[in-house]
Specification:
Strand content: 5-15%
Number of strands: 3
Oligomer: single chain
Strand order of the largest sheet: 1-2-3
Helix content: 25-40%
Length: 118
């Protein structure tokens, strides 16, 4: 109840996932998020693990430690757009906050713009 009332007054609802593309939340979670429509922004974290085209460096399904490899960014964006078609944006982001040139990561700049506009 209290989370729902907090979210009702929110300008933006951030849903943070990562490039490993684990299964989508169950249908109940997706229905709850879909209620907020264009207030929802999906953030795909760990984009720095992908190359400039959004592709993982290796196509092997698991790395040497047995962890799943990141999924290609285009397929992740498509997956989240299909799951939450009314969301405001699906943004790749990396926690380090900057690209190789030391400027703000494009996803961080886009998220900042969305938050300031809200």
């Amino acid at each position: 109840g209290s989370i729902r009332s907090i979210l009702k007054g929110a300008d933006v609802v951030l849903f943070v996932t990562d490039v490993y593309g684990e299964d989508l939340p169950d249908d109940d979670w997706l229905r709850r998020l879909e209620v907020y429509g264009d207030k929802v922004v999906v953030v795909i974290n760990k984009a720095d693990l992908l190359d400039a085209d959004g592709i993982p460096p290796s196509l092997s399904p698991r790395d040497d430690d047995g962890r799943p490899q990141p999924l290609p960014l285009p397929s992740l964006v498509t997956k989240w757009r299909a799951a939450l078609p009314r969301c405001r944006a699906v943004l790749p982001l990396c926690a380090i906050g900057t690209d190789d040139g030391g400027t703000a990561h494009p996803g961080l700049r886009a998220l900042s713009s969305l938050l300031y506009a809200a």
